[in-house]
Write a structure and sequence with these properties.
Low-confidence stretches of chain B: 1-5
Helix content of chain B: 25-40%
Mean pLDDT of chain B: 89
Oligomer: heterodimer
Strand order of the largest sheet of chain B: 3-4-2-5
Number of strands of chain A: 5
Strand content of chain B: 15-25%
Distance between the termini of chain B: 26 Å
Structural class of chain B: alpha+beta
Strand order of the largest sheet of chain A: 3-4-2-5
Shape of chain B: elongated
Low-confidence stretches of chain A: 1-8, 169-187
Strand content of chain A: 15-25%
Largest sheet of chain B: 4 strands, antiparallel
Distance between the termini of chain A: 37 Å
Radius of gyration of chain B: 19 Å
Order of helices and strands of chain A: HHHEEHEEHE
Order of helices and strands of chain B: HHHEEHEEHEE
Largest interface: A-B, 89 and 86 residues
Chain lengths: 187, 158
């Protein structure tokens, strides 16, 4: 599962790109969401499903599901923990941390010396600052990371949060389907 | 957006929707009907609950999470902003359609944002413009390797 980062779409398929743009704000909440997307893209429902399947198999779509907002669900504390890991150890440690239940994201990023020395980033959520710090301490103890310099950056205010956008408009009406949705049969 | 609803007000059905379908939306013609079957509910009720969860801001969407840097390009950027200018610079950054997350954090680098665009060139232009308009240097920290393995986020209701 630890695929190194590859470049963007090797051969950007215009229809895949249009599909990504149509679903980036979410699937329509109506009985046949893929039929509605198909209608928008002027392809068949079966082709939409097939293309989504392929994007998932290639890992371009990492998951398809309910995307929760942690803060609104009571997980109000959110710390980005950054580590200064020797370059030859960073991948191995990243893989270990990325598999832990209390870690929500785990990435290698470049150092920017002298301003920024940290090369491994992970995100730890919790219902309180104390819970986050307890999780972090347990992680440090269990993974024997006491010797690795780290810094904990709690977020104290969110100015903006939404899914990534890749340009252009997403599917119009993606958020509200008609009250009596038409079930469309496509050949 | 109303976000006053607390998770304790979630019905058992809502909790199961949130816990069991973060990574596993069935990929079929009628996904909400398949979810309803699994949960012993109706397609109509599942759609209504998801719409409600979305309208109340507890979920951001039902849909895909893209792997970073596969579709287009993205980066994490940081700025060290003088306290008295923080709101102003945060507003400037949030104003960009390319910016999808923007947080204040407790650190000398106190403003952190994620920017996404179709290509790296466009991304670089956005960061340069933010630097120029704010007069504050931007650290550009694009992902080099992704180690995250978990799918979804385990929620506890206790």
């Amino acid at each position: 599962m630890n695929r190194p980062t590859q470049g963007p779409f090797e051969s950007p398929d215009p229809l895949d790109l249009a599909l990504v743009q149509a679903i980036q704000d979410g699937l329509p909440l109506c009985p046949r969401p893929y039929a509605e997307i198909a209608d928008h893209l002027q392809i068949t429902e079966a082709e939409v499903i097939q293309r989504v399947q392929r994007l998932m198999e290639r890992g371009d779509i990492r998951r398809l599901g309910v995307v929760v907002r942690h803060r609104e669900l009571g997980y109000r504390a959110n710390a980005m923990v950054v580590w200064d890991v020797p370059d030859d150890k960073v991948s191995e440690l990243g893989r270990r941390l990325g598999a832990l239940p209390c870690v929500n994201l785990c990435y290698r990023r470049p150092r920017r010396l002298p301003q920024w020395r940290y090369n491994l980033f992970c995100m730890i959520h919790g219902r309180s600052r104390e819970e986050v710090l307890e999780n972090l301490q347990r992680l440090i103890d269990e993974q024997q990371l006491g010797h690795i310099v780290h810094s904990v950056l709690f977020s104290t205010r969110r100015y903006k949060q939404r899914g990534a956008h890749y340009g252009k408009d997403s599917l119009p009406q993606a958020r509200h389907c008609p009250a009596t949705p038409q079930v469309r049969l496509l050949g | 957006m109303a976000s006053t609803q607390h998770h304790s007000q979630l019905s058992p059905l809502d909790q199961r929707l949130l816990n069991e379908f973060q990574a596993g939306l069935p990929l079929c013609e009628r996904p909400y009907a398949a979810m309803a079957e699994h949960l012993g509910s109706s397609e109509e009720e599942i759609i209504a609950r998801l719409q409600h969860l979305q309208d109340s801001g507890l979920i951001s969407r039902v849909g895909p999470v893209f792997r970073p840097n596969r579709v287009g390009a993205s980066t994490l950027a940081a700025m060290a902003v003088p306290e008295e200018r923080l709101q102003q610079v945060a507003d400037l950054v949030s104003g960009y359609d390319e910016v999808n997350h923007n947080y204040r954090r407790e650190h000398e680098y106190n403003l952190w944002f994620v920017a996404t665009a179709l290509d790296r060139q466009h991304l670089a232009a956005v960061l340069a413009e933010i630097e120029q308009r704010s007069g504050i240097a931007v650290l550009d920290l694009p992902m080099i390797e992704d180690y995250f393995i978990n799918l979804g986020f385990p929620l506890q209701w206790s």
